[in-house]
Hints:
The protein is an alpha/beta fold and 436 residues long. Helix content is 37%, strand content 24%. It folds into 3 domains: 3-61 and 94-170 and 267-328, FAD/NAD(P)-binding domain (3-Layer(bba) Sandwich); 174-260; 334-429, no CATH class. It is built from 13 helices and 19 strands. A 7-stranded mixed β-sheet has the order 6-5-14-15-16-13-17.
Amino acid sequence: xxxxxxxxxxxxxxxxxxxxxxxxxxxxxxxxxxxxxxxxxxxxxxxxxxxxxxxxxxxxxxxxxxxxxxxxxxxxxxxxxxxxxxxxxxxxxxxxxxxxxxxxxxxxxxxxxxxxxxxxxxxxxxxxxxxxxxxxxxxxxxxxxxxxxxxxxxxxxxxxxxxxxxxxxxxxxxxxxxxxxxxxxxxxxxxxxxxxxxxxxxxxxxxxxxxxxxxxxxxxxxxxxxxxxxxxxxxxxxxxxxxxxxxxxxxxxxxxxxxxxxxxxxxxxxxxxxxxxxxxxxxxxxxxxxxxxxxxxxxxxxxxxxxxxxxxxxxxxxxxxxxxxxxxxxxxxxxxxxxxxxxxxxxxxxxxxxxxxxxxxxxxxxxxxxxxxxxxxxxxxxxxxxxxxxxxxxxxxxxxxxxxxxxxxxxxxxxxxxxxxxxxxxxxxxxxxxxx
Length: 436
Ligand SMILES: Cc1cc2nc3c(=O)[nH]c(=O)nc-3n(C[C@H](O)[C@H](O)[C@H](O)COP(=O)(O)OP(=O)(O)OC[C@H]3O[C@@H](n4cnc5c(N)ncnc54)[C@H](O)[C@@H]3O)c2cc1C
């Protein structure tokens, strides 16, 4: 096995491409955009050493900074839970364009052939195997296709049903966001906790934030359904009323985008095919962070392929990557989806109650629910029992999330389609859906 094709310059695909090209594989990547157009015009939080190790370079000092303390604001805005960070725990954020630029440069230096301006339209399938990609520049063939084309990947969506890979996200699996930086007007003090996160913002299912920076105001508005122009205008006006230092001049971003906020695909490989990053829904659902998981997935996939050079394109080998990803990361992400979806089944008033009765505290919010322990929640039992239905819904959701995690971490050994289908059905039974 020698030739590898990557669909889309997603972070996980670039990570895998860098390592596989360094290991001597012939790697080609098809990306629909031009190089200069890649990367969002905003700052993101991720684990810096992961990137630095991968590209073999330190991050330039002028493209990142530390975020201030964070205030979580309850739906009715009566309560603010402030998370204070230490130098060690403080969130570090970096502009996305240089982040992606570092990955692209490392890929080019490793010998990955990047075809910019080539749009992938679907997989090329022969019998039970993906053998390449259909593109607007003609078909491209390869031994293995790595799908890094993001949440709406035409490769994943074009796979035949017998691959058993979920094609499309469902309602609630996606977070529709708008992100923009506006100018900061002078004459106002910086808030004590300058990064404010609004849960159930304006009583609606979703989350928004308002960050007060030295010279800009960083706004994110997000809901589980697409945001109309009118809704955006209303929400921005509301933020400006509450933060009169937020100007009208758009300095960065100003675009709509989508983040997967669900469990990663249970099955994400097939003969000749492996998905990484958003195309396999690899984010932490409560906060939508996907860069770390994408980079880790790319590294795991490259290791699996390199260790099994001759048969690496077979589903039986790629399944090892799939299993290992779930053991290390997928289980935690799936558990986190349980918390996110449970919160969405509650009303804004229920969430207000949890804030106001200290059932939700700073320690629960600092890790986006990732550090929420059942034991710690039980300690809040007395407080939560003042509103039993909502409290039991929350507890039940957390317990189902813990079961899903265990199942993810114990996926079937060996690529046995029947066993994997039975395992997926077990996972499906523990799915927490919220009412439309
Ligand atoms: C507003 C916002 C804020 C976020 N903040 C953070 C954060 O702070 N921290 C964090 O970790 N994550 C954050 N994320 C999530 C993060 O962006 C993703 O989870 C992460 O980038 C992984 O996605 P990806 O690289 O797999 O896919 P993408 O970033 O979607 O990349 C896919 C690539 O494939 C290309 N492509 C798509 N279709 C085709 C096609 N048909 N043909 C050819 N090429 C194609 C695209 O042009 C793109 O280059 C945020 C996302 C958004 C939208």
